Amino acid sequence: MMVLSHTFEEFAGMVKAFHGSVAPGIMIGGSMVDLAYRCLPEGGLYDVICETQKCLPDAAQLLTPCSIGNGWLRIMDTGRFSLAFYDKYTGEGIRVFIDPAKLDAWPEIRGWFLKLTPKKDQDSARLMKEIEEAGSDICSVERIQVSLDLVEKKKGGPITLCPSCGEPYPSGRGALCPACKGGMLPYGSGPRKGGRVDVC
């Protein structure tokens, strides 16, 4: 089985180097990206929407020019294991997803994906073998039309210094930076009392 121009083993090595382990979700994600490229017209400029934050975004980042950092990959976490590729100018595209109706022939994948088999009882080698053999046969594709106004990248506007913490941020975010407004970060990073402290 090939994942774009990579053998299954080569892609597994890429996944391990990027993700830290050969995660089944990314390996299946590779087949999903491969299927998307086979269904899309060549030469288009595509953005990607990933409907889960678990594993699948890494497949898109490894195999496409889309990343979270460049804004061409967006995560809209519905919890569904799905990738949508769409033309960034017209919104026309496709959505690739794991189709539960196609999992019966692949019991190890089915047990893992639907969480029917506890992790301690999963046969990792057999699971990877099924993922390699199944390829994109466990997926379905549907045509979609993305509403571009709903995925338009917001401009940050001019940069200003937060009057509370003194750090620069896009002024369009309000009178204070989002960190100083509170509730956004899981650690304290708001108004500084007593000046700055350099830890390192």
Q: What's the layout of helices and strands?
A:
Layout: E1 2-3, E2 6-7, H1 8-19, H2 24-39, E3 46-50, H3 56-63, E4 73-75, E5 82-87, E6 92-98, H4 107-113, H5 124-134, E7 139-145, H6 148-151, E8 159-161, E9 168-170, H7 178-181
Parallel strand pairs: 3-4
Antiparallel strand pairs: 1-2, 3-5, 5-6, 6-7, 8-9
Helix pairs in contact: 2-3
Descriptive notes:
- By secondary structure, this protein is an alpha+beta fold.
- The protein has 2 domains: 2-151, 2-Layer Sandwich (60s Ribosomal Protein L30, Chain: A); 157-194, Wheat Germ Agglutinin (Isolectin 2), domain 1 (2-Layer Sandwich), CATH 3.30.60.
- Helices cover 31% and strands 19% of the residues.
- The protein is built from 7 helices and 9 strands.
- The protein has helices at 8-19, 24-39, 56-63, 107-113, 124-134, 148-151, 178-181, and strands spanning 2-3, 6-7, 46-50, 73-75, 82-87, 92-98, 139-145, 159-161, 168-170.
- Strands 4-3-5-6-7 form a 5-stranded mixed sheet, with helices on one face. Strands 1-2 form a two-stranded antiparallel ribbon.
- A hairpin with a 6-residue loop joins strand 8 (159-161) and strand 9 (168-170).
- Helix 2 (24-39) packs across helix 3.
- The longest helix has 16 residues, at 24-39.
- The radius of gyration is 21 Å and the shape is globular.
- The mean pLDDT is 92.
